[in-house]
Design brief:
Length: 1132
């Protein structure tokens, strides 16, 4: 049992908040219910979005996750069905498949905590939904560090009222509900309200394998009974009993992207919650006593068919995988409050206060079972089965004391002080014998100033260049009989075609004013209601009839907003990237029209349209990408591979980009001495490889149980050796062609998050998962924990010092005010030292250490780059023109002394290493025959060529080399042959087959500024062309090859070595080339190794993909071609 105790301060901040109110207009007051007392929205000290019952009902949406698109900065994470977790301003749990006992976004329904259980948030009979953005720790503690969602259902009324609904639609949809309530036996002191809702749909997908149409159905029901009893003039009791049941099979994933599934074991995403609550309110003379008690029980079943298919789907391969998690959670909470009378009820009072205490008890159990089998028909040892199960138990108790004081200076200004102390205790254990008992005492608070200025139903307009502003008319109108008042984020557009017009676009509709904002008319409401997400708005500046409105697609109106039509289609995806004109990438962020040209920015591209949005050109993409990772070339400064959200893997050369592969791009690597050889990856560790700089590609293996970003790296001392890490460490000795499983550091299904390999002794590998870190000293076979005195927080990166394998640096990205962001070990993890120093509490995302004598450490943080020398105790900002963005990965190009950064939203950036701006820059390095599957070969000289930039003359350039070990004990001088090109005076001496050769290039300036390249290596290969391999089971081999004196006929015995056959060809002469095959529709390519280097290159290709007997099948087919032997000039 491990016990972790921590005393920390959290949620300490200062807010100056200015909301905007309208005094010249009479508008409906919006009352906030999610705080300790009901208050006017304009007087709240945080940013709050409110959806009232009218808005909720007008949207005709059945669940809060559907309405969430109306709320800026709010997103949700779902599994296969309903939302479980929410994110506010990008903070919060991002995967619906993960469980978390303490969510960053709190969810309260009728004051009962359902954080992390968002699936129950039905909108039927809901009175109001509030989204409180920003930390709400003083209000409900550590479960709302990003914000709070507060849902209040309708209360019982003194008069009987009710409503019912029934909706029937396609795909077997039947939605029905009834809600009613009023006094019991005409006793207005005892009232009730009963709401029952049932939603059913077969779903729009059909399972072709099972021949069923309901495997993606939704079967959801809600029962809620509320009873209010006023026992006397001072005391009120409120009782709540509720049951929510979601029965939603999870058969939604398809192999071919169609609406039809092929799963043999459809999954389930179900949840059943029983809820009980009691509230007691008792009035005293100067304050109110409040008691809030609740108990909940929730059962969740989450399962899915991870192979998305059936035994026939992946034939001839065997692939079958099914995962199931069963979860039970019991929660009990008790809160007591003393709440003062509202200050605005008594003009002599200027202070409002709240004090209270709370207790929360949580018990959760999880049972997870995964079963699978995988087989490759070419693998003699397969198939392989995988069966795992785990049990875990989590319990926690949270005690807290809190208080808040508001001082009202006047009706429009107040200052607020709040504080909270919490004592958190928990226990965890599982079937992997992992157990720990973290505890935490936390305290913190808030200080805020509120000044009422305006709200979203108006804008402010200046006619004197911003010196003074006047309030516009109210932004409201009628659509389908409903009054729509704007309550969401506003985007403004104007048009030179209508001098006095102002256009407003929001999630609620589109408005137009023809009198400079005095009055607004709703010009589009119905169509906007049908768009699920709002992102861009612009009116043409030359023709005001043309309006752009965007969600994940672009919608254009050509009649002033009366009608819209969709003009781009996200579903086309990257298959038609920049070709059809109807693809701009999903999630539109903003738009503008300039001189009749519409410009549109998305989460991955900047696009323009010169024909009013009918067709689009991709103008810019890579510079605004949300990058996860990058990989640099150590032999070509100009080449980088990067992975980004929604935009896949991209390859940057000196003057161009190659969009290499789609999906979500992740980690990528480039061979250090052959920059045409690269591997990119996608989410969860799938890999694609290229051997020609990205023009063609093939697979490089997939992972089992890979993390979202699965680690991928090469061995610095055996550079064809690649590591890819899921729950197991896997290694490839041939740059991704074949793979071998090694150790399992954290157990099956326990994915590795980050990993790194030591630069000098590559037997040493460090891996992390969550807060755990382990070390291997046997190349990944076995691991031992090196957590020692590290904090119990999520590790965001780990790196070795390239100058000293004993030194390891780890980073943390938590938002906690704990001053635990960077730690270092000088003894391979035996002990750790906190080196956060003056960095404070800035989250750190990535770390890299350079190869200079200072071993400078560079940190990629939430905002910018920081650096310090290894021996320094002070961090310095090192952003050097970098945008204020989150830096998700850093890497170093040794030869050019360059630090390169991948940002989340502003592309890739680079700058010189600290103190090396004017050093020589080794831009490229290559050998005569770059490493590949069969080169360099025995007997072939390997000259080294480098391109080196320097601001004056270099004093010396040379290379150091060695064999078998990187000790670099031999020197070869290099000479300047042309401009900035340097070539070794002699070749690296020839070696025998299997010998490993290491070398570095050094460039010396005239100011003791010496640059050294990365450590390059290659292994000498056997002196053969290739290893022929083929069977002739289909009878389609070559039967005859005839050219001049070569007349080689054969049966169908497969390919062979016929180097003993030769002929002389006269340059410029023509010859008959005759070929016979044993099958039709064969593609023939012919190379001649003109320079006898045992390599076939593109300039030696004399016949490319000639088709013999096109369209034919079985039979003997002969073709005679006329071949002209080229002259040296023809071959370049």
């Amino acid at each position: 049992m491990k016990t972790i105790k921590n005393n920390s301060i959290y949620l300490t901040f200062l807010i100056y908040f200015f909301s905007i109110g309208i005094n010249s207009q009479t508008i409906e007051e919006i009352v906030i219910k999610g705080n300790w007392r009901d208050t006017n929205l304009s007087k709240e000290d945080s940013s709050i979005a409110v959806l009232d019952s009218k808005t909720i009902e007008s949207q005709a949406l059945k669940h809060f996750e559907n309405l969430s698109y109306l709320v800026p900065n709010l997103n949700f994470a779902a599994s296969d069905s309903r939302a479980r977790h929410f994110q506010i301003r990008g903070i919060g749990e991002r995967s619906g498949y993960e469980r978390t006992p303490n969510s960053a976004v709190g969810l309260l329904i009728d004051d009962i905590d359902f954080s992390g259980q968002g699936g129950i948030a039905t909108t039927f009979d809901v009175d109001q939904i509030e989204v409180h953005r920003g930390p709400q720790g003083a209000r409900i503690g550590s479960s709302a560090l990003a914000g709070l969602i507060y849902i209040s259902t309708k209360e019982p009324t003194e008069k009987f009222e009710g409503k019912s609904e029934i909706v029937m639609g396609t795909y077997g949809t039947i939605n029905s509900g009834i809600a009613f309530g009023g006094p019991v036996n005409s006793n207005k002191d005892l009232t009730y309200r009963l709401a029952i809702k049932k939603d059913y749909s077969d779903g729009f997908r059909k399972n072709l394998f099972l021949n069923k149409s309901d495997t993606s159905k939704k079967d959801e029901s809600t029962f809620r009974l509320k009873v209010n009893w006023i026992s006397d003039n001072q005391t009120t009791y409120k009782f709540l009993v509720s049951q929510i049941e979601l029965d939603d099979p999870a058969d939604i994933w398809t192999i071919d992207g169609s609406l039809n599934t092929l799963s043999d074991k459809p999954g389930m995403d179900s949840q059943k919650s029983n809820v009980y609550g009691v509230k007691i309110y008792h009035q005293f003379e100067k304050f109110e006593f409040q008691s809030l008690s609740s108990a909940t029980n929730t059962d969740v079943v989450l399962s899915y068919d991870a192979d998305w298919g059936n035994p026939e789907s992946h034939s001839p391969y065997i692939y079958d995988y099914f995962s199931e998690t069963i979860r039970n959670r019991d929660t009990y909470s008790q809160e007591f409050r003393l709440v003062s009378r509202s200050a605005d009820k008594d003009t002599e009072k200027s202070i409002e206060w709240v004090i209270g205490a709370s207790f929360v008890d949580i018990n959760e159990t999880n049972a997870k079972k995964d079963t699978g089998i995988y087989g490759d028909p070419s693998d003699p040892y397969g198939p392989y089965s995988s069966n795992s199960s785990s049990l875990s138990d989590f319990s926690s108790r949270n005690y807290s004391l809190f208080g808040n004081i508001d001082y009202l200076f006047n009706e429009t200004t107040k200052i607020s002080f709040g504080g909270r102390w919490e004592n958190f205790e928990s226990n965890y254990f599982d079937s992997y014998d992992e157990s720990f008992s973290p505890s935490n005492k936390m305290s913190g608070g808030k200080l805020s100033l509120v000044k009422i200025l305006n709200n979203d139903s108006n804008i402010y307009i200046s006619t004197d260049t911003g010196i003074t502003f006047n309030t516009s008319g109210s932004i409201q109108g009628v659509s389908n009989g409903n009054i729509i008042t704007n309550s969401s984020n506003i985007k403004i557009s104007i048009s030179g075609d209508c001098e006095n017009c102002i256009y407003i676009g929001s999630s609620d509709g589109i408005w137009k004013s023809s009198d400079l904002g005095d009055n607004f008319d709703l010009i589009s409401g119905t169509y906007i209601d049908e768009i699920s997400n709002y992102g861009a708005f612009a009116v043409s500046d030359v023709n005001s009839s043309v309006i752009l409105y965007g969600d994940i697609d672009t919608h254009m109106s050509f009649d002033g907003g009366a009608n819209f039509e969709k003009t781009t289609f996200w579903s086309e995806g990257n298959s038609n990237y920049d070709q059809t004109g109807t693809y701009v990438h999903a999630d539109l962020r903003g738009a503008v029209c300039k001189d009749g040209v519409f410009w549109l920015n998305t989460d991955g591209l900047l696009c323009k349209s010169e024909d009013n949005g009918v067709s689009w050109e991709i103008f810019e993409g890579q510079s605004i990408r949300e990058n996860y990772n990058l990989g640099v070339s150590q032999s070509n400064h100009y080449r980088t591979i990067s992975g980004s959200q929604d935009n896949g893997t991209s390859i940057k050369s000196e003057n161009s980009w190659i969009e290499f592969y789609g999906a979500d791009g992740m980690e990528g690597i480039i061979h250090p001495l052959n920059d045409d050889w690269m591997i990119g990856s996608v989410q969860f560790g799938g890999k694609r490889r290229t051997k020609d700089g990205g023009y063609t590609q093939d697979g490089a293996g997939n992972l089992e149980n890979g993390s979202w970003i699965a680690p991928l790296f090469y061995d610095p001392n055996d550079q064809m050796k690649i590591y890819s890490l899921g729950d197991k460490v896997t290694v490839s000795e041939d740059f991704g062609s074949t793979w071998t499983d090694l150790g399992t550091p954290f157990g099956l299904t326990q994915s590795i998050n980050y990993a790194t390999i030591a630069e000098n002794n590559s037997n040493i590998i460090a891996v992390t998962r969550g807060s755990q870190i382990k070390l291997s000293t046997d190349s990944g076979l076995t691991f031992s924990s090196i957590n020692s005195n590290l904090p119990d927080n999520y590790i965001t990166d780990v790196v070795f010092d390239p100058n000293n394998d004993d030194i390891i640096v780890v980073t943390y990205g938590s938002y906690n005010a704990n001053n635990n962001k960077v730690f270092i070990s000088y003894n391979q993890g035996s002990a750790w030292e906190n080196i956060t120093y003056n960095l404070g509490n800035l989250p750190v995302r990535s770390v890299v250490v350079d190869h200079t004598e200072n071993s400078n450490i560079y940190l990629g943080t939430e905002i910018g780059v920081y650096k310090k020398a290894m021996s320094s105790q002070t961090w310095e900002l090192y952003s050097q023109g970098l945008p204020n963005m989150s830096i998700l990965e850093l890497d170093i190009v040794y030869g050019s002394n360059t630090l390169r950064a991948a940002t989340w939203g502003r592309g890739l950036w680079e700058y010189s290493l600290d103190g090396r701006l004017d050093y020589p820059s080794i831009l490229t390095t290559e050998i005569t025959n770059p490493p590949s599957d069969n080169s360099p070969k025995v007997g072939f000289d390997q000259f080294v060529t480098s391109v080196i930039d320097y601001n004056t003359d270099l004093t010396d350039v040379y290379l150091k080399w060695s064999i078998d070990e990187p000790i670099f004990d031999n020197i070869i001088s290099m000479s300047n042959v042309n401009d900035n090109i340097w070539i070794s005076d002699t070749s690296i001496p020839n070696q025998e087959e299997g010998v490993k050769v290491f070398f570095k290039v050094f460039a010396e300036g005239n100011n003791e500024d010496i640059t050294e390249s990365y450590k390059y290596m290659y292994e000498v290969k056997a002196n053969i062309y290739c290893t022929p391999s083929m069977d002739c089971s289909y009878g389609d081999g070559l039967q005859l090859f005839q050219l001049a004196d070569i007349n080689n006929s054969s049966e169908c015995e497969g390919y062979g070595d016929f180097m003993f056959l030769s002929t002389d060809l006269e340059q410029g002469s023509q010859y008959d080339l005759t070929v016979t095959t044993g099958y039709g529709n064969q593609y023939l390519s012919v190379w001649i190794d003109f320079n006898d280097d045992l390599e076939y290159t593109s300039d030696e290709l004399i016949l490319e993909n000639y088709i013999i007997a096109e369209g034919e099948e079985a039979g003997l087919f002969t073709d005679c071609l006329l071949y002209t032997s080229p002259s040296p000039r023809d071959r370049g």
